[in-house]
Amino acid sequence: MAHGSTDSSKTSNWAAWSISLVNGFWGDYLHDHGNGLAVEMALYAHNRPLTLTAERLVALHPQPSPKLCILVHGLSCNEHLWSFVPPQEADSQPEQVDYGTLLQAEFGCTPFYLRYNTGLSVAENGKSLAILLQTLCDCYPIKVEEMVLIGHSMGGLVLRSACHYARQHHESWAKRVTDIFYLGTPHDGADLERVAYSAAGALQAAPNSITRLVGKALNSRSRGIKNLRYGTLLEPDVIDEGWDDLAHHHHRAVPWLPHARHYLVGGTLNGNPAHIASVLFGDGLVAVPNNVNKAVPVEHIRLFPGIRHIQLAQRWEVYEQIAAWYRQGESK
Amino acid sequence: MERQTARQVQGAVDLLHDATTTAANTIGAIQVETADLTYTILKQIPVVTGPAAAIERFHLSITRGVYVSVRGVSTVVALATAFVLARLPQSEQE
């Protein structure tokens, strides 16, 4: 996705980032109150939502490929997250790329970038994404044969949720998914949200009105953020074990898309993964993937020491790993 | 102005209005609750019972007036923005 560097595009990117940030923290409130700042889920191109018609898709991608790549950002972000300047020779002009454009250049995957309201619950976004991807496949000018999904942070949870709802509703796009890359995705929950949950509870229980006010303000964080406590993928009404077992529910209830190859990428704060900061804080926001349920083969997990949470979406070495895995998968 | 931009500007003003109203209500309630403790103690002291009750009434009326004004200004700004935006020529994007 090419991003211009004119003043107007910089202003518009700045506005998009501000709106995405507000949506991350209070997006559910904005959505529930019909506020104009609430982001509607859509595939975006050039800072605009893409109307899903064959004509518009051909106008955007004059040579559509049967292989699609869908990039899904994380909490409080938008599709601009993916842009970065790759390492280059000293005399060449700096040019912005992203994992989508790189996969397009190397493997012919046509990239699409999602923007969505990250303050809504993962399940709400998962359901909407399932419908959106089916619409994309239906409108796409040629038959879609393969889909590659890349999710950063919460985006990975939304992808898993979308795959679950697509299978539940027999939507055909899920059958075309071959590879899913999860970059810094809190499959087992994020410690920072667990701290926020405990702090909000303690502050609200304190016998002081000002302390309770601070607790109330902290507790006003969005459903999306609260879902990150355990990496919850489904609506509570389908949780048959009850709230007490919420922590482990999603492992049983949402299997990983069976026919697809899954890849976990993690980072650490420190260059040494054994360093106390790396062990305690992972990439700064999400702990190192532990693969407790052996859902993903060990060779499909890669840790990048010294690469922090946001950087996982913007690093050349991460792309090289994605490309290597994709190449390996294609050859099988 | 694009319709989407106008919706976002109105949304930002609405959000600010909601935040101001909620903050004014909450902080106002806390201020009254905090002051109530002081006045309750003062009113137990025979010599100052009368003046304390009068000061409390004066204090409460000023406090309520301030927060009503804050909510009022916020509402006026939100309504004025909606009025102006509704009259600006708007275009669809794409």
The number of helical runs of chain A is 11
How would you characterize the largest beta sheet of chain A? 8 strands, mixed
Helix proportion of residues of chain B, in percent?
over 70%
Total strands of chain A:
8
Task: Indicate the structural class of chain B.
Answer: mainly alpha
Strand arrangement in the largest pleated sheet of chain A: 2-1-4-3-5-6-7-8
- The chain-level mean pLDDT of chain A equals 90
Oligomer: heterodimer
Question: How would the blueprint of this fold be written?
Answer:
The complex is a heterodimer of chains A (332) and B (94).
Chain A: H1 7-32, E1 42-45, E2 48-49, H2 54-60, E3 67-72, H3 99-107, E4 110-115, H4 122-139, E5 146-152, H5 154-168, E6 177-183, H6 191-205, H7 209-219, H8 223-227, H9 246-253, E7 261-267, H10 276-281, E8 301-304, H11 316-331
Parallel strand pairs in A: 3-4, 3-5, 5-6, 6-7, 7-8
Antiparallel strand pairs in A: 1-2, 1-4
Chain B: H1 3-44, H2 49-87
Helix pairs in contact in B: 1-2
